[in-house]
Design brief:
The chain has 126 residues and is α/β, with parallel strands linked by helices. 30% of the residues lie in helices and 24% in strands.
Length: 126
């Protein structure tokens, strides 16, 4: 169950955000090897002036600076090759969906067995 969290400066076209998140969910599911319905994605807008790159700020999402900052949380157990594949698929889908090409930052974090709960069940515990 991969979960993608995106934090970015405002986009003028909210349909672009929804489309990019859907594209990312599909790409993550394909690369990770799970059903698309098992991939979750969230979007959080960063208030202009609260995301500085060097000494520059921006009111809206520029194409070549201030990349969206993304964290992909996945359950442990994937090897380095699979993790790289999932990261690249995520970056590519978001970049295409948002029209930002290579201006996406994605980090990967593993959720360990026994350290996450879904509903009332600790995941990875028997």
């Amino acid at each position: 169950m991969p979960i993608l969290h995106v934090r970015a400066l405002p986009e003028e076209d909210h349909d672009k955000i929804k489309n990019a998140l859907k594209m990312a969910c599909e790409a993550i599911a394909n690369a990770y090897g799970c059903q698309e319905s098992h991939v979750w994605a969230t979007w959080e807008e960063i208030t202009p002036g609260f995301y500085i790159e060097g000494s520059c700020d921006s009111a809206f999402q520029p194409a070549d600076t201030h990349p969206p900052i993304c964290e992909l949380v996945c359950f442990e157990g994937k090897n380095d090759t699979k993790i790289e594949e999932v990261l690249l698929a995520t970056s590519k889908a978001l970049g295409e969906g948002l029209g930002l090409e290579n201006n996406i930052f994605v980090s990967y974090r593993e959720a360990k067995a026994g350290q996450a709960v879904i509903g009332n069940r600790v995941v990875g515990k028997n």
